[in-house]
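Q: Given only this backbone (352 positions), what sequence would you predict?
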């Protein structure tokens, strides 16, 4: 693991302001960790004002803070930045640099003679690459990856163990995927006739933009006739499923165990929480947010935060819905109390 000094930090974060740093000019920092675990040679961060008291007593020699926290920690050495999380990520990457490709190829691979592999690309054990496929420069293809025919993978890709790219899949630059994910498998298309489910051929592709990151155990299916497309900058958590013919815009976030049914369209900057189910042929407008655990069956008409398990309710609508449910559940209790009061005052109950 690397060590960092003050001058390195100042170069790494040119937008930052440094406060009370005279005491750390000669310190070699050995890591970055949480407030309660940091020692005197480590850096920590204050994510919100609720952690100020803990920051005052922590052992970290240097703290990353936002401008609104500075006055509460004037005795500490501080890195003052607009976005604490972003600065923290940059520093962590210095302590734990990403693996860089070296151009090494395992002797246990099968590459079709027509395939093209870019310069400085690593290929791990038991990788197969099909005919007319193109792998970009500076990629890392880890063990057990299966790449079909006519697949294109852009420069700087990081492909995790045992991933599968079916024929004709197109992937942009700086793509990251973790282990056991699948791209371009057949969509779920069948027509019921003559007493059985007859398969509908899936002849579209999967086309993925630049700077996309996909977790483990994800599946993105090829289109039936048109392509399944994923825009630039999308980030998918583990166990996300994208069905055939979906059109996903730029910078979309989808959390774990969520799925899009066929032919869903997501605008740019949509956020879908964990364990959500989006029904087929729906459209989510740019910037729409679906709260975790929701099931959406109709296309929202406006950009908003939606939550629930039926027609798709905005958050205020869902809060009213919850109150109504509670009232209905308690109704029998109220009716019983009313009946008791009526008996005490001599009111004869009326039959409905």
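A: Predicted residues:
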């Amino acid at each position: 693991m690397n060590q960092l000094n003050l001058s390195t930090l100042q170069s790494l974060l040119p937008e930052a302001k440094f406060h009370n740093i005279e005491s750390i000019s000669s310190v070699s920092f050995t890591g970055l960790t949480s407030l309660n675990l940091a020692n005197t040679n480590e850096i920590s961060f204050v994510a919100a004002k609720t952690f100020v008291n803990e920051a005052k007593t922590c052992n970290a020699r240097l703290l990353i803070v936002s401008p609104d926290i500075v006055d509460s920690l004037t005795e500490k050495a501080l890195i003052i930045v607009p976005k604490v999380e972003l600065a923290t990520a940059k520093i962590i990457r210095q302590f734990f640099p990403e693996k860089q490709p070296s151009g090494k190829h395992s002797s246990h691979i099968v590459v079709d003679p027509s395939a093209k592999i870019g310069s400085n690309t690593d290929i791990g054990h038991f990788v197969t690459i099909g005919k007319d496929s193109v792998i970009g420069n500076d990629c890392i293809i880890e063990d057990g990856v299966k790449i079909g025919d006519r697949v294109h993978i852009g420069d700087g890709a990081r492909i995790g163990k045992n991933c599968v790219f079916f024929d004709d899949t197109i992937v942009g630059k700086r793509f990251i995927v973790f282990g056991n994910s699948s791209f371009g498998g057949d969509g779920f298309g069948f027509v019921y006739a003559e007493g059985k489910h007859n398969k509908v051929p899936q002849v579209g592709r999967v086309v993925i933009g630049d700077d996309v990151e996909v977790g483990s155990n994800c599946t993105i299916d090829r289109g039936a006739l048109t392509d399944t497309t994923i825009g630039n900058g999308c980030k998918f958590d583990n166990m996300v499923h994208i069905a055939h013919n979906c059109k996903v815009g730029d910078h979309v976030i989808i959390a774990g165990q969520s799925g899009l049914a066929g032919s869903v369209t997501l605008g740019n900057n949509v956020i879908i929480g964990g364990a959500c189910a989006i029904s087929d042929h729906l459209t989510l407008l740019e910037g729409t947010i679906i709260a975790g655990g929701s099931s959406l069956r109709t296309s929202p008409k406006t950009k908003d935060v939606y939550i629930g398990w039926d027609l798709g309710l905005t958050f205020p609508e869902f809060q009213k819905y919850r109150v109504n449910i509670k009232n209905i559940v308690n109704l029998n209790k109220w009716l019983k109390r009313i009946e008791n009061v009526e008996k005490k005052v001599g009111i004869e109950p009326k039959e409905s």
